[in-house]
């Protein structure tokens, strides 16, 4: 717990801890593509263990799940079998539930059985209805009661990696605003005197983020931004095959994560895979003998 607290002080700069996940995914891709050399197997195990250690001490189930999920997505890209996705979904739900029972700080002392943990994952982690409802109920056309300074959450995302000592106007994340509002109006046990005292957040969807930042018009802004991002990501996947392990997932998560969370969790993975994929293109070293990159749109 002490180590987790220390890691939390890194804030968004904890992004560097996600690079082992990107490298481990790369070596899993090499294995799936048929490269069975000992060095590749060794590096796959080594970087997967590094990613596992980081995930465990960061206390993030998402990081832990991605060690397994990203290679599975690439495997699905290669095999095109729906059964892989179905089995993976149920397997990851069970894994998340077991983690919640034994390791998740907020639930490991509750004595949950597996069925209660599964229900908690489905209703608490996958269900975003209550945050949508809170966002809409407190919204006006161009503003929202949850966030007194419109667009503050988006501004924080744009300035994420610039220290507050340099840009003291950067504000706070949308999740922080949401927790602050809920603590002062709904769940009083969450209440704090200042936004600066909040060191945790509620996972919000991209649509909720848009509505909280800019009212109903924020939903339109989110839709436009998502459209441009999907176009960019489709182009990237057409150029870099290895991104089929993560870009489809990021596309899906636009409906379930804020832009801030996507940047902090997935950007280092994407950058790592692009660099390594580009290196393999230059070297002409596709293990399976492939010379071209095919768009995943023909699935």
Automatic annotation (TrEMBL):
Keywords for the protein's UniProt record, in alphabetical order: Membrane, Transmembrane, Transmembrane helix
Residue intervals passing through the bilayer: 12-29, 38-56, 84-103, 177-198, 210-230, 250-276
NCBIfam families documented for this protein: glyco_rpt_poly
Name recorded for this polypeptide: Oligosaccharide repeat unit polymerase
Source species of the chain: Paenibacillus auburnensis
Species classification: Bacteria, Bacillati, Bacillota, Bacilli, Bacillales
